[in-house]
């Protein structure tokens, strides 16, 4: 079965590197992998998304709506935006640290409240939401730049078919060398968040 | 061993393995990373050209001199390069020549979503279309063989999804190609009328040979499964079709799409009950299949607008609706792109917004965002360089209308080098009367920081003499040239006042690095090191929100407290908000 991981965030948050680490880990676990990133105009503070699909043989890099096993949202509003991609019973990993979009800054729209509950839904429509202020967690480790690695740690617990050493190898292959130790620490911290 | 690559990385690898010696490009999403990656191979001389026409011409020169060469550009870049392109089919090539056209279905980062396969057909050159990273590498190598065997340029048509998605790739080794010794061949390479007349029938004969090749090549392959449905498809649409139909359909997967393999298609169509054509954007294949009298279903069900995905195909052809969880769509707030915190363009646009009775013609780059909330300054954006030339034409008519409206044309440094220079010559030569602003942020910003003739560095990082915009525009004959720091609002206002009052063409050059740029030693010398951030002194803030109206994403208004707040993680200390605050409530950290 192909596993589908959807990612949502804001341009500049490091979604491309996050996607790269996830796909590298899946690749090292022996799967066929395809990914998507948004690059270009949208990186200027706009909404960005990515996808990782892995399995025996993957054709489309795109995930169909309602087919994502996991949504990794680097920002809560972006979590809400992409939550329709998740299948009922799927998992949504949410960094609760907000980045207000321009319409909110311009006071032309309100930042939505109760995002966790809105995403979680009810009954047959329910999805599992695991929320954490990853920015604060990263700050606690001494560098906010490892914020996404905290959420990758959370993701690694959900994706049981990728062994933990593949995640370590992927992080080592992709993050700058001088931040490796801190990134591994952030990853372990993320694994403890349930 | 397989490795994980984007389509663009795989193209660069393919070029390397094919023995390419020269590559030239102008950056443009989604093609930019191709040259950034060829530059990683010392065997390939890789260069940024000032525009796509120059890139293609340089590559043609390299080919005529006997080396394998590639030009890479986004789809609209091929429009700029169309002039040489339309004649390359006549001349043919010496060393293999591949033009990579990176189309952008869905306009992710473009002003339109044209389908450049049509340009390949129009230009009478061959076209190949990979569907993933492995094919991007393999088709590059195939394209060079085709190019040299048939004496034809090859368009390798990518799309955003193939350029930027990553998949597994088996790499090979580089095969060095000897440079073909140069021989003078005026009858081939001087496309004067007498030669062109003789070359045209040669082109037509080549196309006949290429169609024969198209019917025979394994680039166009059949995958037999269920024969009730047959699908003709190409590019990433093939992957989507496989995702949706799996083994419930048979496929004719076309990797070589110009000329089309009509015999192969006819044979395939005869063996299936129902023929679908699944392709992104225009009915390029479908029209030709229908014209050949083969019945098929395509664009009447599958949209020719926007990017395709498996969901669209499943809905269109199978009527499939997936069960979706319900979400509160009305609670979702949009998140349009915005100028970054500390972007030097913000100060300029903020000052420009105050000017009344002006028309602002804009251009392609990050500063296109000067058109959006809350700056709302720019009136037009069409294509590279158009700000200056459109502005000139507009000023002519506005002068006739006689209401004193003035045009301010706004263009970035890289875009000015691309095609703003000739536009400015037009203004000067014809004694126009526009204010031309060159926003020099010391880098090509939008596409992710590529060097350009004004930065003083090449693609390979070599330090070179920079083209000085000030010297250049004075040499063109512009008499009023004002250099200004765009973060100094008073200075920008004064510059605009002086230029608007001036009779004749004027140029304002704003010079400050992109807020995201990694400063060069020269930048540090000129602009200093990182600035301390700004903060709001809460007791002094009266909640007037003027700072918020600069549109800086680092500034948020706290409704409960009725105070503005600056996020210290986002602020870069540009001081635009500090100058805007009428109550001096914004200070620099450490003050």
UniProtKB/TrEMBL annotation, chain A:
<dbReference type="InterPro" id="IPR002869">
    <property type="entry name" value="Pyrv_flavodox_OxRed_cen"/>
</dbReference>
<feature type="domain" description="Pyruvate/ketoisovalerate oxidoreductase catalytic">
    <location>
        <begin position="11"/>
        <end position="192"/>
    </location>
</feature>
<dbReference type="InterPro" id="IPR052198">
    <property type="entry name" value="IorB_Oxidoreductase"/>
</dbReference>
<keyword id="KW-0670">Pyruvate</keyword>
<dbReference type="GO" id="GO:0016903">
    <property type="term" value="F:oxidoreductase activity, acting on the aldehyde or oxo group of donors"/>
</dbReference>
<dbReference type="InterPro" id="IPR019752">
    <property type="entry name" value="Pyrv/ketoisovalerate_OxRed_cat"/>
</dbReference>
<protein>
    <submittedName>
        <fullName>Indolepyruvate ferredoxin oxidoreductase beta subunit</fullName>
    </submittedName>
</protein>
<keyword id="KW-0560">Oxidoreductase</keyword>
<dbReference type="Pfam" id="PF01558">
    <property type="entry name" value="POR"/>
</dbReference>
UniProtKB/TrEMBL annotation, chain B:
<keyword id="KW-0411">Iron-sulfur</keyword>
<protein>
    <recommendedName>
        <fullName>Indolepyruvate oxidoreductase subunit IorA</fullName>
        <ecNumber>1.2.7.8</ecNumber>
    </recommendedName>
</protein>
<comment type="function">
    <text>Catalyzes the ferredoxin-dependent oxidative decarboxylation of arylpyruvates.</text>
</comment>
<dbReference type="InterPro" id="IPR009014">
    <property type="entry name" value="Transketo_C/PFOR_II"/>
</dbReference>
<feature type="domain" description="4Fe-4S ferredoxin-type">
    <location>
        <begin position="532"/>
        <end position="560"/>
    </location>
</feature>
<dbReference type="GO" id="GO:0046872">
    <property type="term" value="F:metal ion binding"/>
</dbReference>
<feature type="binding site">
    <location>
        <position position="581"/>
    </location>
    <ligand>
        <name>[4Fe-4S] cluster 1</name>
    </ligand>
</feature>
<dbReference type="InterPro" id="IPR017896">
    <property type="entry name" value="4Fe4S_Fe-S-bd"/>
</dbReference>
<dbReference type="GO" id="GO:0051539">
    <property type="term" value="F:4 iron, 4 sulfur cluster binding"/>
</dbReference>
<dbReference type="InterPro" id="IPR017721">
    <property type="entry name" value="IorA"/>
</dbReference>
<keyword id="KW-0004">4Fe-4S</keyword>
<dbReference type="InterPro" id="IPR017900">
    <property type="entry name" value="4Fe4S_Fe_S_CS"/>
</dbReference>
<feature type="binding site">
    <location>
        <position position="571"/>
    </location>
    <ligand>
        <name>[4Fe-4S] cluster 2</name>
    </ligand>
</feature>
<feature type="binding site">
    <location>
        <position position="552"/>
    </location>
    <ligand>
        <name>[4Fe-4S] cluster 2</name>
    </ligand>
</feature>
<keyword id="KW-0408">Iron</keyword>
<dbReference type="InterPro" id="IPR029061">
    <property type="entry name" value="THDP-binding"/>
</dbReference>
<comment type="subunit">
    <text>Heterodimer of the IorA and IorB subunits.</text>
</comment>
<keyword id="KW-0249">Electron transport</keyword>
<dbReference type="InterPro" id="IPR011766">
    <property type="entry name" value="TPP_enzyme_TPP-bd"/>
</dbReference>
<feature type="binding site">
    <location>
        <position position="541"/>
    </location>
    <ligand>
        <name>[4Fe-4S] cluster 1</name>
    </ligand>
</feature>
<keyword id="KW-0670">Pyruvate</keyword>
<feature type="binding site">
    <location>
        <position position="574"/>
    </location>
    <ligand>
        <name>[4Fe-4S] cluster 2</name>
    </ligand>
</feature>
């Amino acid at each position: 079965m192909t596993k589908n991981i959807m990612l949502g965030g804001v341009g500049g948050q490091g979604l491309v590197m996050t996607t790269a680490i996830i796909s590298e880990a899946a690749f090292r676990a022996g799967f066929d992998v395809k990914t998507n990133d948004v690059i270009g105009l949208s990186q200027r503070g706009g909404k960005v998304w990515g996808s990782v699909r892995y399995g025996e043989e993957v054709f489309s890099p795109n995930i169909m709506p309602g087919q994502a096993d996991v949504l990794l949202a680097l920002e809560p509003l972006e979590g809400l935006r992409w939550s329709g991609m998740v299948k009922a019973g799927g998992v949504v990993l949410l960094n609760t640290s907000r980045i207000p979009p321009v319409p909110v800054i311009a006071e032309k729209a309100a930042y939505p409240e109760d995002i966790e509950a809105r995403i979680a839904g009810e009954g047959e429509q329910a999805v599992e939401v695991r929320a954490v202020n990853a920015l604060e967690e990263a700050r606690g480790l001494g560098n906010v730049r490892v914020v996404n690695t905290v959420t990758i740690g959370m993701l690694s617990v959900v994706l049981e078919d990728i062994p933990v050493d593949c995640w370590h190898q992927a992080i080592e292959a992709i993050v700058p060398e001088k931040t490796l130790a801190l990134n591994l620490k952030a990853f372990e911290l993320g694994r403890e968040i349930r | 061993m397989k490795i994980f690559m984007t389509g663009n990385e795989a193209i660069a690898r393919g070029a390397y393995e094919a023995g390419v010696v020269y590559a030239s490009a102008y950056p443009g999403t989604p093609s930019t990373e191709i040259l950034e990656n060829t530059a990683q191979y010392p065997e390939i001389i890789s260069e940024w050209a000032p525009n796509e026409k120059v890139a293609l011409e340089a590559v043609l020169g390299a080919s005529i001199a006997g080396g394998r060469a590639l030009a890479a550009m986004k789809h609209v870049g091929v429009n700029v390069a169309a002039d040489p392109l339309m004649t390359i089919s006549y001349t043919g090539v010496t060393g293999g020549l591949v033009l990579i056209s990176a189309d952008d279905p869905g306009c992710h980062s473009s002003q339109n979503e044209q389908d450049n396969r049509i340009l390949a057909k129009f230009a009478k050159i061959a076209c190949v279309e990979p569907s993933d990273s492995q094919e991007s590498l393999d088709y590059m190598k195939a394209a060079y063989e085709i190019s040299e065997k048939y004496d034809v340029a090859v368009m390798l048509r990518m799309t955003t999804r193939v350029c930027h998605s990553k998949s597994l790739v088996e790499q090979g080794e580089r095969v060095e190609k000897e440079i073909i010794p140069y021989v003078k061949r005026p009858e081939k390479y001087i496309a004067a009328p007498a030669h062109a007349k003789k070359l045209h029938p040669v082109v037509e004969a080549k196309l006949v040979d290429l169609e024969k090749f198209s019917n025979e090549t394994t680039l166009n392959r059949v995958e037999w499964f269920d024969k009730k449905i047959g699908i003709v498809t190409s590019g990433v649409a093939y992957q989507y079709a496989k995702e949706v139909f799996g083994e419930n359909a048979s496929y004719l997967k076309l990797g070589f799409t110009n000329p089309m393999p009509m015999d192969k298609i006819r044979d395939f169509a005869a063996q299936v009950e129902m023929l679908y054509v699944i392709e992104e954007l225009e009915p390029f294949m479908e029209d030709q299949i229908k014209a050949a009298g083969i019945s098929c279903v395509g664009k009447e069900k599958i949209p020719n607008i926007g990017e395709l995905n498996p969901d669209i195909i499943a809905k269109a052809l199978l009527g499939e609706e997936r069960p979706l969880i319900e979400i509160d769509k009305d609670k979702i707030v949009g998140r349009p792109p915005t100028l970054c915190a500390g972007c030097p363009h913000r100060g300029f646009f903020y000052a420009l917004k105050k000017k009344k009775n002006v028309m602002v013609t804009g251009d392609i780059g990050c500063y296109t965002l000067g058109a959006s909330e809350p700056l709302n300054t720019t009136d037009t954006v069409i294509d590279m360089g158009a700000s200056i030339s459109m502005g000139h034409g507009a000023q002519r008519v506005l002068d006739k209308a006689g209401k004193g409206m003035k045009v301010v044309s706004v263009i970035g440094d890289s875009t000015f080098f691309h095609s703003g220079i000739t536009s400015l010559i037009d203004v000067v030569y014809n004694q126009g009367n526009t204010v031309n602003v060159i926003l020099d942020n010391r880098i090509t910003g939008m596409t992710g920081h590529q060097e350009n003739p004004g930065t003083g560095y090449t693609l390979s990082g070599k330090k070179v003499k920079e083209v000085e915009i000030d010297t250049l525009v004075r040499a063109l004959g512009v008499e009023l040239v004002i250099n200004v720091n765009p973060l100094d609002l008073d200075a920008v206002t004064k510059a605009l006042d002086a230029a608007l009052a001036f009779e004749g063409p004027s140029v304002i050059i704003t010079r400050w690095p992109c807020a995201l740029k990694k400063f060069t030693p020269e930048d540090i010398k000129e602009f200093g090191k990182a600035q301390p951030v700004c903060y709001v002194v809460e007791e002094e803030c009266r909640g007037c929100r003027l700072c918020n109206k600069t549109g800086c994403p680092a500034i948020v208004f706290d409704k409960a407290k009725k105070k503005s707040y600056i996020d210290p993680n986002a602020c870069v200390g540009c001081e635009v908000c500090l100058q805007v605050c009428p109550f001096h409530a914004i200070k620099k950290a450490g003050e």
